[in-house]
Each structure stands twice: as structure tokens, then as C-alpha cells.
Amino acid sequence: MTQHQPDAERPEAEEAAGRSGAPAERGRGLSRRGVLGLAGATVGAGLVGFGAGMAVDRAVAGGSPDSATYPFYGTHQAGITTPAQDRLHFAAFDAAPGLDRDGLIELLHDWTVAAARMTQGRPAGKYGPASGPSDAPPDDTGEALDLPPGGLTLTFGFGPTLFRAADGTDRFGIASRRPEALVDLPRFAGDALVPAISGGDLCVQACSDDPQVAVHAIRNLSRIAFGRASIRWSQLGFGRTSSTSRSQTTPRNLFGFKDGTANIKSEDQSVVEDQVWASAGDGAGWMAGGSYLVARKIRMVIETWDRQQLGEQERIIGRDKGEGAPLSGGTEFTEPNFLAVAKDGGTKIDPDSHVRLAHPSVNGGAQLLRRGYNFVDGNDELGRLNAGLFFIAFQRDPRTQFIPIQRRLATNDLMNEYVRHVGSGVFAVPPGATEGSYVGAGLFA
Amino acid sequence: MTQHQPDAERPEAEEAAGRSGAPAERGRGLSRRGVLGLAGATVGAGLVGFGAGMAVDRAVAGGSPDSATYPFYGTHQAGITTPAQDRLHFAAFDAAPGLDRDGLIELLHDWTVAAARMTQGRPAGKYGPASGPSDAPPDDTGEALDLPPGGLTLTFGFGPTLFRAADGTDRFGIASRRPEALVDLPRFAGDALVPAISGGDLCVQACSDDPQVAVHAIRNLSRIAFGRASIRWSQLGFGRTSSTSRSQTTPRNLFGFKDGTANIKSEDQSVVEDQVWASAGDGAGWMAGGSYLVARKIRMVIETWDRQQLGEQERIIGRDKGEGAPLSGGTEFTEPNFLAVAKDGGTKIDPDSHVRLAHPSVNGGAQLLRRGYNFVDGNDELGRLNAGLFFIAFQRDPRTQFIPIQRRLATNDLMNEYVRHVGSGVFAVPPGATEGSYVGAGLFA
């Protein structure tokens, strides 16, 4: 039925060709290992300048953005300080009822192997989608076969329920190793959380400039997890709303405003060390070099927003809409002056504006590294787009960062009239894996 | 509250700068009219080689794909033979209960003006998102302010219920002008249609290489329609599954197979004339130069598919997975030989394979111009991705094209075990509008 023969015996060099190993190319005898090897070397060279585990500049990693690849193994997981890719597929998984400690470790090992392959532009499994035995299911689903990875990163996290299930059981013998920073998020004013799109034992954040590559990755990780874990909820994001590098332009959210101007940038090494990476002294030693991910699905009532006056929109945000400058004056990157006085005697920036309440100066210096995405999930029965911001933030400790900031916003932010938090999750994101080991190995050591 | 002043009096040249008119750029005194004018001239020159209303080659329209623009006005609507863009936002609208004939005409006029602007990279309205009066809502929502149009096309269609409502009323005095070709689709074997994601009085297909631009367009058309029409259902597609030009590579669907190899290509002028465009002799004269759009939301049971043997997957499709060649041999673009005999005495291509049942040779020569997209809408309660193909096809007459082809597929296609049609729509897509007029004017003449 097929021209493909089982090729378990074909040389490892051909296997390494991976996603590029379409018959036509293989027929020409093209050796891709050399090409990939060279790219790898370039990436390695780039890393020297950035420090291990840091994001690799795209210009270094490849000729075009689509061909960017980031190392999977390293001090930190990729997908945190990596320049935010354009598209997202995020999935929260629940462990299957029968899964035990060994099964969980095996799953994390299998995910690690597949993730390391896919992020380098190779199929999820050894045979790929079209080169394995005819009488077995392919070990890659194929829709990314001809696509460059587009900077794909896969970032794994552990939810509170992995450490202790809702019924109190310690399924995996790790309850005592739960980091203190991995708290259950409190209820915030106005929360309208839907349990079906909140929580999860595990999470995977897939980011790529090509949405098909991100979807392919989540789908294959879900396929690999079959019988061991299944998707609890998932979310596609079509447009990034944050920059994580000074090399990126500031994108716009669905309020039409620039978002993430004041985000932590990967170039700010000391801020990253201070606010993003957990350290050995923080408590759970196995989390050193890791981070904590908070996800919030924030529905925006865009139809109401769209009927609001321009001046009122700008008052709520605290910035002007075109340039993104603070209403105290200047340009996008001018620091806001919350004391600047307007003609009417009030401050030029409303004290309850979003820009002020989210600013480090009113949050004891606390910041977040945000990697959010715009989403549209069809529409509701009234014809309103089910649209908004899928907020993702990384931080060293949610107790001193996301939680107090969000408490302040949830109570006072003028923007609250136009947003509703409908989904939520918090996950401990372990440090990067070492080649030959697996993501989160320290938790089970 | 804002630095922006009402600028109703600013010169038309500045207004024409449109989306590019961010304060920083305007501050530098950059005249964008010249740039846009030049691009327009180039497009015009390109059109001479293609014939009016034909797709404009991207290399002609702009230096990079992102900057591609296609003319809105012309013999045919853009977005049909235009090289299929990477991303989709499709929306079906229902007219508001109180809308009358004049109101409908006014809506179509307003949509035309906004669509003509947005497809050229300008804001939906004259003031744009950030340059209008502070005490009025902006006439563009802003999230595409800094983005090139990415080849944005907006294609409008009229559903059967526009001509006569479900309750039999002729709300707009157009019942007698309903084209015979605009039939209600019959029920096909296996259909599992959900009314809430089927039908609609009007439709808009927004395609762009940038999803934020496509979403922005639908959102602004919905905003403009406020009180006159509202979204009945909408669909995002993240990856195109068809090529409509020989200049494009063949993409893959979520079965992991190349899709659209045998699609109608815009370069095949005689096939396009014969199979895509309605002509004056077909019946409804106002539809000459128009086409008929069939949309089907096809859920794929990808988890079951992923556990199927590679050989069986290839038997179902009738092509090999890697190259996309027919199982009778050759390469992707080799014509399938349905008579080629395999070693076991049967045909190399299964008679019930998808490639055979969809082939013109078993459909009396009927073909479709397909512009489908892969979608993922989260997941179901069992953790299975709610994923599949949002099928869109254009044709001269659904009675002789989509309907008989789909009847054959719905009855016999081996693929049926893995797909479920859950949404459906059929729309008459009028010819292109003339500048100064509006889309569908012929229907009301």
C-alpha cells in the first residue's frame, strides 16, 4: 500500500535528517546532518555571547525568522526570556487516574525527548510521520513535516494538584517537595473563573512564529501522553502582546493599545535574575533556575470598549493610543510621571489608570515577565466576539509578584469594567533539563 | 486627557496616511500618500498582465509578503483567486430584526467603504484609532495600527435567508432575485450540523498573512454593523490548507497530508472561467462575475486518526504521506492512475479513497476552488482537541459542483470514519464592486 519501507535500520545520519527527510530530498542524497550540525555550531557560538540558557538571537540562529531554533537543553527552560514568538498554543494536562510516580517520570522523559527533537525542527519520534513501518502508526502526526520550527519553544510546568490532588492524595510521592512559592492563587475581586478552563496538573506552553508548528507540538505531546495524561484545557493565541527583548517592537492588545512597553526584557540581566529565576536560597532547591508561571484567560468586553470615547480609553490605560506614551508626556519609553498635574488640577495620569496600578513604583518594585497573547474563540450567543488576552507571566515568586499586583488591579483598575478573568492557572516551571535527563528530574531525585 | 486634538480639518493627504499615521511618523513629516500611490501604480501595472480583477503577484505588490496589498474594487471580489493567505477569520452575520431594505443597502455601503480602506492598510474609518476627537469613540479599534495588511482580502456573501427569512418573509424585497444556484444544501449522509454554527444572512471571509489583521477587519465590520447585523458564528483558521496559485507550496491538513494538490489554480484561466465565475447566462444577471461559497466546518477525530497505521492512512487518502504522490506512483503532481494494479490484484489506489472520489474524472469534470483552513478550537471534555478543517470552496454552481461531489464523498469516502461535518453555510458572492458603488449593488438595481 505504500512505498515506504520500515527503516529501523537506516543509518542514524538519515534519522537525524528528521523533518527534512521527505522522500524527494532523501532521493537526492542530500545529507542534512551537516546542515543541522552547522546550524547547531552557530547556535553554540551565539550562546557564548549571551550566557548559557539565554535566548539565541534569530539572526544568529538562521537566515530568516522562520528558521530560528532555540536550544532545548540548558540552565533555564526556553520560552521564558526567549524573544516572544508570534503565536501560542498552551495546554494544561491532568494526569490519568491510574498514573503512578514511575509513570509520571516516564511521561516527563518521553515528553523531554520529543520536545528536544521538535524544537530543533525534527519530527516528534524517530521514524517521523511518513518513514516508519507501514503497519504501525507514525510517531509524528505530519502537519509540520515541511515547516521550519519558527523559533519553537516548549516550556513545561507543574501545577499544585500534581503535588497533592484535590482529594488530598499524594499520588506521586512529591507532596513534601511542593515549593512554598507554588501557592494556590487567592480569589481576586471580580473573578469569574470557569473550573473547566482553570488549573491542571501539568502545563505546556508552545510558542512559535508559525501557529501550525505550535499546534503540532501540543498535539504530539498529547498523543505521546495517551493513557497517562490528557488535555484539561487549551488555548490558542494568535498575536503576542508582549516583547521580551529590546530587539522587538511593542505589539498591541485587543483594546488597540500597545502592551508590554514596560515588560521585563531579557537584556536586563540583573532584573531577570532578581525577578524571574528562582534561586537555591528561595526554598525548594530543585526549582533553582526555574520560574513560576501564572496564566489568566481575560475576556475583554470589546464591543463596549469600542463604543467608549478615545479620551476615556486613554484615561483608563494612562497612555495615549497612537504612540503609547504616558499621558504625562514624552514618547513610548518615557517613564510615566504620576505627579504631573493637568490643567484641571488633577494628575495627568489617573491614579486608578492601568499604567499606574501595574507600575513597579506602586508595587514595591515587583515586576513580571509577561508573554501574553491575543485570542478570539468565536463568539457568544449575542454575537459578541469571545475575545481577549491570554495573560502569561513568569516570576520568581507569585506571593510577592503576581498576587499583590493583581490584588491592586482587581480592586481599583479603571479597566475592570471591560475585562473579566475567566480562566486561571499557576505552575512551577522547573529549570532546564540536561541532555540525557528530563524536565523536572530534580523533583524526583 | 489626551494629546490628540479633533482633526476633522486636517488635510486629506494626512488622512490618507491612515494606518501609518502614528504621531511619531507624522512628526517626521513623512508623506505616505506618495508611498501608497506608488504601490498602487505598481499594482496597476501588474494587473495589466493578469487581467482586471485577477490576483496580484506579491512580488509585484510589495517588497515582502507582509506588505502585499490587493485592490478591493474590480471585476471580481478579491479573496477567491487571490493566492491563499496564511490565516483566516470568517464570520456569518444575521440581519437585525428591524433592518429594512434601505438599512441593508446602507450597511453594505458602509462595509464597502471600510473594506476598501482596510485592505489597503488604512484604518476602517477616516479618523483612525487615535487621531479623532477625544470625546468620540475612535472609528477604528486600533490593534492593526502598526501592521502591514499582509495581503488582506475581504470577501462578502449573501445567504439564502437574506432573500427569504426562515419564516417566509421577504424582508428586503429581493426574494424574486435569489439565484437558482443559491440552493439550500441538502442533508448529506453523516451530517451532524449544529444550527448555531451554520447558515447566516451574510458572510465575510477575511484572509491575511497576519491573523491580527484578519481579526481586526472582522471586528471592525462587526462594530460598523452594530444595531443592523450581528455575528451569528465565526471561525478562525490558523493554517491554509489549499494553494490557489502555482507560486505556492502545497500545505498540509491536520491529517498530516498535503492538501489541495489538485486544487484549481488561478493560472488556469479557462478552468477558472468555467468552474468559478458565474456568468450572465447562468440565470441571475446581477451575479455575473460572482461565485458561490460553500463553507463546512469539518471536525477531525485526530486522536483516532493518529493511532491508525501509516499504510492505512495512505490507503484512505490515496496518496503517500511524505511526498503526496498518488499511490499509483510518481510525484506530488503526477496524475493518479486509478487503474494501476497492485500485487494483490486490487488497484493501487483504493476505489473509495479520498483522492479518487474527489477527482474530477469521477465527478463529471466538476471541480472546486478550495480555500480551506486548519482550525483548533480548544478541546472537548475528553481532552480531545476540537480540531479539523474549515472547508471553503468557491464555484460557479453548487448544484453541479459541491453537492454531487459531497454526496459521493459522504456516502463512500474511507475518510468518513475520521471526520464529522458540524457546520455549514452557502452564500452567493456577488461580483466585485465599482469604486463609488458598493458590494452587491446589482442585487438592488
Shape of chain A: globular
Radius of gyration of chain A: 23 Å
The unreliable regions of chain A are 1-64
Report the portion of residues of chain A in β strands. 15-25%
| Sheet of most strands of chain A | 6 strands, antiparallel
Please trace the helix and strand order of chain A, writing H or E for each element. Answer: HHHHEHEHEHEEHEHHHEEEHEH
What can you see in these coordinates?
Two copies of one chain form a homodimer. By secondary structure, chain A is α+β, with helices and mostly antiparallel strands. The first copy, chain A, has a domain at 160-198 and 241-433. The first copy, chain A, is 25% helix and 17% strand. Chain A has helices at 12-17, 23-27, 32-50, 58-61, 101-119, 160-163, 211-224, 269-275, 302-306, 310-317, 354-357, 402-412, 441-444; strands at residues 87-95, 153-158, 202-208, 229-237, 239-240, 291-300, 369-370, 373-379, 385-395, 419-429. In chain A, strands 5, 6, 7, 8, 9 and 10 form a six-stranded antiparallel beta sheet that branches. The interface between A and B is large, with 88 and 87 residues. Chains A, B: Residues 250-433 form the Dyp-type peroxidase C-terminal domain. Chains A, B: Residues 1-17 have a biased composition (Basic and acidic residues). Chains A, B: Its main location: other.
